[in-house]
Design brief:
- By secondary structure, the chain is an all-alpha fold.
- The chain is about 40% helix and about 0% strand.
- It has a domain of about 30 residues.
- It is flat.
Length: about 80
């Protein structure tokens, strides 16, 4: 085996050790404090109210407030003349 192959294998092995260590730490930390998201009493601020959906939309058809092209603001009009 060449030196580059040994270096490559050592990098892969070290990465695997670090990854397994991170997973083990995450699992043991969650067990040690007894906290989990399912047991959380945190409020999200969302309010649910039950109401019937309207029979018709509030407006029959949307209409634009400006007809035709809108005028440009003064800084966008360009030079006079």
């Amino acid at each position: 085996m060449k030196a580059s192959g040994i270096k490559f294998f050592s990098v892969i092995a070290a990465s695997a050790v670090v990854g397994v260590g991170a997973v083990v730490m995450a699992v043991t930390q969650e067990r040690s404090n007894g906290y989990s998201m399912a047991d959380s009493t945190m409020q999200t601020g969302v309010t649910h109210t039950k109401s019937a959906a309207p029979k018709e939309p509030a407006t029959a058809k949307a209409q634009p407030s400006i007809k035709g092209p809108a005028p440009l603001p003064p800084e966008e009009q360009g030079l006079p003349g």
